[in-house]
């Protein structure tokens, strides 16, 4: 196996397992599904049960079951594209970014397949201002992975133009 893809697979697996473990612990063991809300360090940090049928903040919530399968397919296509892109990369930060995105995406895909929606439960607010949105570890991983790729991914040396790009022809 390509060493880069092996790194991506390892990071993806770790993030997926962390996402699944936190969702199981919070939703099943702490019974957040029935309780709905658990004050942890109120108002700064709480556990608030939310079922997200769309993407971030409920965007693209199509309501119908077809929307759920569309979002599953979209996540898997994006992951396949990232794997295709990563196969020619060598930097650890790129493997980390792709692995974070894929691990988080697979955790959320699992939720959509099993429950029809993504389990969100992490809620951060401010005194006097209750944030109505929640998210999960997979969402954090997706965001962090995308930020890493945007900030640190570079074109492989063989794909970069040399000498500042195309030189003008002189007559």
Characteristics:
171 residues; 3-stranded antiparallel beta sheet; mainly alpha; 5 helices; 54% helix; globular
Structure description:
The termini are far apart. The radius of gyration is 20 Å and the shape is globular. It is built from 5 helices and 3 strands, in the order ααββααβα. The protein is mainly alpha-helical. Strands 1-2-3 form a 3-stranded antiparallel sheet. β1 (37-41) and β2 form a beta hairpin.
Secondary structure layout plus pairing:
Layout: H1 3-29, H2 32-35, E1 37-41, E2 45-52, H3 65-86, H4 92-115, E3 118-124, H5 137-152
Antiparallel strand pairs: 1-2, 2-3
Helix pairs in contact: 1-4, 3-4, 4-5
- Summed up, the helix count is 5
Q: Helix/strand-derived class?
A: mainly alpha
Report helical residue fraction: 40-55%
Q: How large is the radius of gyration?
A: 20 Å
Biggest sheet overview: 3 strands, antiparallel
Which H/E pattern describes the elements? Answer: HHEEHHEH
Count of beta strands: 3
Spatial ordering of strands, largest sheet: 1-2-3
């Amino acid at each position: 196996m390509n060493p880069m893809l092996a790194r991506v697979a390892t990071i993806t697996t770790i993030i997926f397992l962390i996402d699944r473990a936190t969702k199981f612990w919070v939703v099943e063991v702490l019974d957040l599904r029935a309780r709905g809300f658990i004050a942890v360090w109120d108002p700064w940090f709480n556990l608030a049960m939310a079922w997200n049928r769309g993407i971030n903040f409920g965007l693209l919530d199509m309501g119908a079951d077809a929307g759920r399968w569309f979002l599953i397919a979209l996540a898997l296509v994006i992951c396949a594209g990232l794997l295709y892109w990563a196969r020619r990369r060598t930097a650890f930060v790129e493997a980390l970014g792709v692995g974070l995105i894929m691990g988080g995406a697979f955790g959320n895909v699992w939720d959509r397949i099993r429950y029809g929606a993504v389990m969100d439960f992490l809620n951060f607010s401010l005194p006097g201002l209750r944030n109505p949105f929640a998210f999960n570890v997979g969402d954090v991983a997706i965001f962090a992975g995308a930020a890493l790729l945007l900030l640190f991914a570079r074109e492989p040396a063989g794909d970069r133009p040399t000498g500042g790009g195309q030189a003008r022809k002189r007559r």
